[in-house]
Amino acid sequence: MTVHQDYEIKINLNELIERRIPCCDLLHPDHCLTEKQVSEIAHDIRMDINLHDLYKQVDQHIIKYINAAGIDNKDHWVEPHLPDLDRDLKEEVGIEFD
Predict the structure, then answer these.
(1) Which of 30, 33, 49, 81 could covalently link to 37 via disulfide, CB atoms 3.0 to 4.6 Å apart?
(2) Residue 97 has pLDDT above 80, yes or no
(3) Is the pTM of this model over 0.85?
């Protein structure tokens, strides 16, 4: 049995927001956000995040690899498994989180 390396992306939304607009502290007393404001923004992002752009990039890389590696896809068996491959922004729909 082979073991393949897993690649993960973890995004701390609070840290991402703070990299864009700093939290208020001694270094940034003005033009800043409070920790509560950062948390509220992060919560809003988490509730409304759309990952279709990421899915589309993954789908595009899969097709690119299939073609570059010479994997037989003459009967287009791959594309039905890649629903975001041709998705456009006008087709975006909300994602329900349970």
Answers:
(1) 33
(2) no
(3) no
